Amino acid sequence: MRFPVLAVLAASAALAFAPPASSQRMIGGNPGPAHNYVCPNADGGPQLDCYFDAVRHLYTMCRHVKSIEIIEWGHEKSQEGVNSAKSEYCVDKQRANITRPYQGALKEASVSKLAVDGLRNLNAFWVAAMADLRWQPGESADDYLTRTVTPYIDFEERIDGIKGNVEVARAGRGTAVAKAPAKAAPKVAEKK
Prior knowledge:
- It is a single chain.
- The protein has one domain (23-172).
- The chain is an all-alpha fold.
- It has a two-stranded antiparallel ribbon with strand order 1-2.
- Helix content is 61%, strand content 2%.
- The chain has helices spanning 2-17, 47-73, 85-97, 99-108, 113-131, 141-173, and strands spanning 26-27, 30-31.
- The protein is elongated, with a radius of gyration of 24 Å.
């Protein structure tokens, strides 16, 4: 009977020393760096960095889930019935999770039409790569591995292009942050 009492005391002590929820930093809609599930390697960084990190990280997570299914069921049976339910859920969940970083990245990249177009292309490529994590009938284990690792190269090339377009646009404006153009002062009518 003493065990539940000790557990309650330990839990209340832990809560007493935990920082209040209001003092936790929000990143990508998640509280604090320890809980940043979407872009864990871009804590506190710009929206573009969060999105770029999310592209890599969320793809990797679903790729790992699919690998577990393949280990459990084998390549051929990993697509049968409910055997692929975990990876399908992962893809659906990550498509929802990337929405906020993507919208923030679009806003930050709005200094360059080329960067915005590049982001849209990267996002479309990411969605296709996520859907393409499924094993294809007749595919060898090596072919599957090669096919699911190749998107990382494309991610990096596209990300580098977007970063370059944003840097050029910012340098062309002579500022690190896009600002609205200054309004001209209204003309005052001269007395004759």
